[in-house]
Specification:
The protein is 84% helix and 0% strand. The protein is an all-alpha fold.
């Protein structure tokens, strides 16, 4: 039974990784992240 639980956990982890990969590589999120990084580097000290 323990092996089946590990297998289900692995499937869930891979599924979450796929969803995060798709979300973070979408054009809208990519543009937002690039904008945030650009603003962070434009800060004057």
């Amino acid at each position: 039974m323990v092996t089946a639980e590990y297998a289900m956990g692995m499937i869930a982890a891979v599924g979450l990784a796929v969803v995060l990969y798709k979300v973070l590589n979408s054009p809208a999120v990519r543009g937002m992240l690039q904008g945030m990084v650009g603003q962070a580097f434009d800060v004057q000290f």
